[in-house]
Design a protein that fits this description.
The chain is α/β, with parallel strands linked by helices. It has helices at about 20-30, 45-55, 75-85, 110-135, 155-175, 195-205, 215-220, 230-245, and strands spanning about 10-15, 35-40, 60-65, 90-95, 140-145, 180-190, 255. The protein is globular.
Length: about 260
Amino acid sequence: MPAEIKNNTVPRALVTGAAGGLGREVAVQLAARGCAVAITDINADGIAETARLVSAQGGDVEEIVGDFTLEGAPETAVQKVVERWGGIDILVNNAGYGVIEPFLDSTYKSWTRTLTLNVTALAMACKAAGRVMRDQRSGRIVNITSPGSRMALPDYTAYTASKAGVDSITRAAAVALAPYGVLVNSLAPGMMDTEMQRSTEADLARVNGRNDLQAFLDERTRRIPLGRRAEISEVAEAVVWLALDAPKYMTAERLNMSGGLDKD
């Protein structure tokens, strides 16, 4: 348990985009570390399954089904955590959206949805949780970014632009909340086996005229210096480390976990 929240017997966490993939694994690992975990997503069935897995770890769980692209939804989710447990110690902004779309064929609709969920909703969640953490004078926020935020990817520009926004928000929120002892950091995971990653790469292969999907995937994997894709569990371990174990002097940092693909 972080030293700055040691007076709380149970750290209180909110994980967005928790219906599956990385968000689900983060929620389960936080519960295994003794946290009470609120989980939110638009997918009600996925949230119910995540709640079952969190409960199996002995964790207290709050299910919040909702669309974070709607105005006020992030603030409502944070408020539900506060009403349930009296405060919030950890926010993991994992919810995300992306679509493969060649830049010259990109649409207003896809840009709007991507930026609304990945940037605006994340900023509002940081704001809402940050206000509670400011008053508590403690808390940790972990934002999920991407190596793509620093790459030129013309078939995925809305997504990479949104993640550059996440990087910027992380730095700004970290500075705004630093006087109150609140830490804000981000994690940039590389390629891993999630539903979103699989869908993205299948679409990427299609727009590039690659009919042999497995050969395309293998080619992309060979670009990773470690020679393999990340396991969801090990990426979640890094998120949990930032949320619970990282030093109290670490804030405004971007932690790369891409097997050497993204280099500082």
